[in-house]
Amino acid sequence: MPIEISDPKDERVRDYFALTDVALRTKVEPDRGLYLAESVKVVRRALAAGHRPRSFLMGERWLTDLSDLVEKAESQGVPVYFAPPGVIEAMTGFHLHRGVLASMHRPELVAPATLLRNASRVVVLEDIVDHTNIGAVFRSVAALGVDAVLITPRCADPLYRRAVRVSMGTVFQVPWTRIHPWPGGVQVLKDSGFTVAAFALGDGAISLDDLAADQPDRLAMVFGTEGDGLTRLAIKGADLVVKIPMAGGVDSLNIAAASAVAIWALRPSHTV
């Protein structure tokens, strides 16, 4: 049976404490091997991807609306907690209006070479620290047919609650892993047969239009941090440096916009 929670400090729902505290969640989630999925659509996508729930938290009305999820959780011995809106808000730090939160077991990451084996288009994110941008990039990647995403050691966590929400749960359907060390990991891409294209401004950069007109069979698109762009060593290790043609005196785009433009221009032929 679903378990009612009346005390926002109940230790049984500790996974959901203080979710608005970025420093706490960044530290705790990986250490405890969990991440938080928020909203009905996101939770269902996580489950469809084979991720295992630890528990669910929802308002009482959602016990009926999500009866199939509740019944399956109970059959698997996964606790389903419910509480009044005020208790949930005191517990989490925000008003839960998207139906449900789920504490999920964090899946183990695979080696980069494993993801690259059957891929033709991959995206590499270097030191992207904004969770909103991470989520937006993953949504574009999923929509436009990229096979995998590799993120560098200093990149933000794609399974952080905000990143998952912005991605609309597409972080669960796009294979991804961390590539390290970096930028030494560029060699892993080359050894797997990829042409490495670093997106940056500078002398010798070719136009995105030119690359789109003559694309290699296997391409890795590398995008840099929101402020400074790609590091010098990442650019040096790439096979190509690519820039997006722009007008109006604008020299760069936000990482989410720039990656979407580039991914669309270089999308695989089977993408519709």
Query: How would you write the strand order of the largest sheet?
Result: 8-7-6-11-9-12-10
Let me know the number of strands. 12
Can you tell me the CATH superfamily of the largest domain? Answer: SPOUT methyltransferase, trefoil knot domain
Please give the domain count. 2
What number is the mean pLDDT? 90
The rounded distance between the terminal residues' Cα atoms is 45 Å
Shape: elongated
Largest sheet: 7 strands, parallel
The CATH topology of the largest domain is Alpha/beta knot
Q: Number of DSSP helices?
A: 12
CATH class of the largest domain: Alpha Beta
Give the second-level CATH assignment, the architecture of the largest domain: 3-Layer(aba) Sandwich
C-alpha Rg, in Å?
Answer: 21 Å
Topology diagram in text:
Elements: E1 3-4, H1 22-31, E2 34-38, H2 40-48, E3 53-58, H3 62-65, H4 67-75, E4 80-82, H5 85-92, E5 100-105, H6 112-116, E6 121-125, H7 131-143, E7 148-151, H8 161-166, E8 176-178, H9 186-191, E9 195-199, E10 206-207, H10 208-213, E11 219-223, H11 232-237, E12 240-243, H12 255-265
Parallel strand pairs: 1-4, 3-4, 6-7, 6-11, 7-8, 9-11, 9-12, 10-12
Antiparallel strand pairs: 2-5, 3-5
Helix pairs in contact: 7-12
Highlighted features:
Alpha/beta knot, elongated, alpha/beta, five-stranded mixed sheet, 272 residues, 34% helix, 12 helices, seven-stranded parallel sheet, 60s Ribosomal Protein L30, Chain: A, 12 strands, 2 domains
Q: What would you note in describing this structure?
A:
The chain is built from twelve helices and twelve strands. By secondary structure, the chain is an alpha/beta fold. It has two domains: 3-105, Ribosomal protein L30/S12 (60s Ribosomal Protein L30, Chain: A); 112-265, Alpha/beta knot. The termini are far apart.
